[in-house]
Amino acid sequence: MLVMRVIIVPSINQYEKTMKKVSGSTFFGKKLFPTIWFGFLGLMIIGMFNSDDIGSSWPIILPMLGMAAVGFVLFRHLAWHLADEVFDHGDSLEIIKGNKRQVISLTEIINIDYNKSQGQVTLNLREAGALGKDVTFVLPTMGFGIFSKSPYVTELIERVDEARRKSYIEAAKTL
Questions:
Q1: What's the mean per-residue pLDDT of the chain?
Q2: Theoretical Cys-Cys bridge with 128: which of 20, 33, 95, 133, CB 3.0 to 4.6 Å?
Q3: Which run of H or of E encompasses 104?
Q4: What distance in Å separates the CA atoms of residue 132 and residue 113, rounded to the nearest whole number?
């Protein structure tokens, strides 16, 4: 006799239902532009080495190697440290960077830094997690609103403060 068990699972669980993506795209800055930059420089250098008179190519090759080194440092500090996706779950943030994933409770956030000109938000965390002690992500573009504070950042600061106050009150009740 064949017995079949059926488990009923809701189509959308509460966790996914409250999820809202709050980060912008990093594909161009993290993947496409560095590929174009290093690809162009690599092709130019290979082309110079394939020329008949390699001795006269050094004055051109050395600056290209310098451009590659400067590009590496700039991409490392301006783009490659950014999180790929950030989802807001109400009482926590889910951050994805490459194959690493970290869920951060709002009470674990010490400080929120907002760079208006680059649209970057840096979260300083109480303890280092899978992505480190500081996590940076890019907000979606807001058109010409780069000179004003992001409404999402203002709301996030207020929610972090409220979560902290609630955790302090709960801690005081247990004493």
A1: 84
A2: 133
A3: strand 100-105
A4: 16
Q: What pLDDT digit, counting tens, does each position of 11-29 carry? A: 444 445 568 899 988 899 8
Q: Is the dihedral of CA 19, 20, 22, 23 positive or negative?
A: positive
Q: Which two tokens stand for residue 58?
A: 């050094």
Tokens of 9: 């699972």
Collect contacts of 165-173 with beta carbons under 8 A, ≥24 apart.
Answer: 167/107
pTM (2 d.p.): 0.76
Q: What DSSP assignment string belongs to 43-76? A: HHHHHHHTSS-GGGGHHHHHHHHHHHHHHHHHHH
The C-alpha atoms of residue 150 and residue 13 are separated, in whole angstroms, by 29
pLDDT at 123 over 90: yes
Q: Cα(120)–Cα(116) distance, rounded to whole angstroms?
A: 7
Helix (H) or strand (E) holding 21: strand 20-21
Distance of alpha carbon 86 from alpha carbon 92, whole angstroms: 10
